[in-house]
Design a protein that fits this description.
Keywords: Glycosidase, Hydrolase. InterPro entries: GH, GH_1_N_CS, Glyco_hydro_1. One of its GO terms (molecular function) is beta-glucosidase activity. The chain has about 475 residues and is of the alpha/beta class. It has one domain: Alpha-Beta Barrel (TIM Barrel). Helix content is about 35%, strand content about 15%. The strands form 5 sheets. Strands 1-2-3-4-5-7-13-14 form an 8-stranded parallel barrel, surrounded by 4 helices. Strands 6-8 form a two-stranded parallel sheet. Helix 6 runs parallel beside helix 8, helix 8 packs across helix 11 and helix 12 packs parallel to helix 13. The mean pLDDT is about 95.
């Protein structure tokens, strides 16, 4: 078989996109809770606190907070070996800077992880996934302030100790490189007039990288069996032509991602990263001992998201621009695209797996991959999402080649949004990824009832045969 015994088949969600119950049992306000609904053509807005009359999709989301037992039972029916979710930071520390945690929040995750383990499902936990405590944003300016390293470490210390016998797999920050693309979404960064935005972003990123390294070291001290990884958005880029200028542009595009993964996996800033900062007049403020902290806090594995590839062109007349997953490039004439314009490239998945593994030689974990699409419920209640099955089938085929032919060390595969949830980018419900349909629309109306799509039964067979029957 292509995949080793114990390969972690499963699915992935984020707490802020599925839990709802945004102000229940002592939970504080997070950055996700002030994000309004948007669409493909209309960006989400982040308001200053909660504004009456605005619709905030995360406030109810799919009410996973109250329905997790029902959902995990469905995951078990599919045969999940693992379930990737996140902890809502503000359930544990409502404002982010408290010394003592909120016991009700801790109990919820105790119950959630116990429910997973009851079915033999390993929790895979992202510690911070696009939901900063809003109190840290307003009081400290979020990750621009080094104080957040200590607040984050206090949070990690609490959850590592509390769940040390329930959770083995951890990731420190979701898609950490997005701080350089859309700084508010992952890191709660707001800019002041006249600020050097790159200076702010990369200083905040340095604080997150220090926090991550310290968390890795702390976690290993608490439980030597912990596997603690990073998580990056991985957008494989191609040169439009064999013009060396296109190749250089594509390499520079990829360097923006490797800047982060290099520090996580190698434990230091590369010479290229230092030159990049220098060219952009960014002077990182590093404290004594930071270099040692990064060296000692290298990750055990690289978690990453893969949805699409992009193309870079040096031709100024090449205006056929395409965007997706918070990034942009020019259209690839060899690829089709999803309804949201994301270019579909299964072979690019194999290329990405090889590029990452060749570069770092540590285990990889694909923790996000999938197709956002509009699903139609037939009169008999069935949902025939053959397009999703085909997308995943082709990607798993290429994943198998990377493992079987190329020798990539891959820990697991958790398709994104295994149950329909709120889209992070647009706040929509109609952009669905799941194997399980949730009856809710873009306006927040619906019963929230769950139903199985055709892909549910297909993915069950994939897991049952360890990827042999596709």
């Amino acid at each position: 078989m292509s995949f080793k015994e114990g390969f972690l088949w499963g699915g992935a969600v984020a707490a802020n996109q599925c839990e709802g119950a945004y102000n229940v049992d002592g939970k504080g306000l997070s950055t996700a809770d002030v994000a309004t609904a948007g669409s493909y053509t209309k960006a989400r807005r982040y308001t200053d606190g909660i504004i009456e009359g605005e619709y905030y999709p995360s406030h109810e989301a799919i009410d996973f907070y109250h329905r997790y037992k029902e959902d995990i039972k469905l995951f078990s029916e599919m045969g999940f070996k693992c379930f990737r979710t996140s902890i809502n930071w503000t359930r544990i520390f409502p404002n982010g800077d408290e010394q003592d945690p909120n016991e009700e929040g801790l109990k919820f995750y105790d119950n959630l992880f116990d429910e997973c383990l009851k079915y033999g499902i390993e929790p895979v936990v992202t510690i911070s996934h696009y939901e900063m405590p809003y109190g840290l944003v307003t009081k400290y300016g979020s990750w621009r302030d080094r104080k957040l390293v200590d607040f984050y470490l206090n949070y990690c210390k609490v959850i590592f100790n509390r769940y040390k016998d329930k959770v083995k797999y951890w990731m420190t920050f979701n898609e950490i490189n997005v701080v350089a693309l859309h700084p508010f979404i992952p890191a709660g960064i707001k800019f002041k007039e006249g600020e050097n935005k790159m200076q702010v972003c990369y200083q905040a990123a340095h604080h997150q990288l220090i926090a991550s390294a310290k968390a890795v070291k702390l976690g290993h001290e608490i439980n030597k069996d912990f596997k603690i990884g990073c998580m990056i958005l991985y957008p494989q880029s191609y040169a439009k032509t064999c013009n060396p200028d296109d190749v250089q542009l594509s390499n520079e595009f990829m360097d923006n991602t490797y800047y982060f993964s290099d520090v996580h996996a190698r434990g230091y800033y590369s010479n290229k990263a230092k030159k990049f900062l220098e060219r952009n007049n960014v002077k990182l403020k590093m404290e004594e001992g930071d270099e040692e902290i990064l060296r000692e806090g290298k990750v055990d594995f690289i978690g990453f998201s893969y949805y699409m590839t992009l193309v870079q062109s040096s031709d100024k007349n090449d205006q056929d621009e395409i965007k997706g997953n918070m990034l942009g490039g020019v259209k690839n004439p060899y690829l089709e695209a999803s309804e949201w314009g994301w270019q579909i490239d299964a072979k690019g998945f194999r290329i990405s797996l090889n590029n990452l593994y060749d570069r770092y030689q540590i285990p990889l974990f694909c923790v996000e991959n999938g197709l956002g699409a509009v699903d139609k419920v037939e009169e008999d209640g069935s949902i025939n999402d053959d397009y999703r099955i085909e997308y995943l089938r082709q990607h798993i085929k290429e994943m198998k080649k990377a493992v079987e032919i190329d020798g990539v060390d891959l820990m697991g595969y958790t398709p994104w949004g295994c149950i329909d949830l709120i889209s992070a980018g647009t706040g929509e419900m109609k952009k669905r990824y799941g194997f399980i349909y949730v009856d809710k629309d873009n306006e927040g109306k619906g019963t929230l009832n769950r139903s199985k799509k055709k892909s549910f039964y297909w993915y069950k067979k994939v897991i049952e045969t360890n990827g042999e029957e596709l």
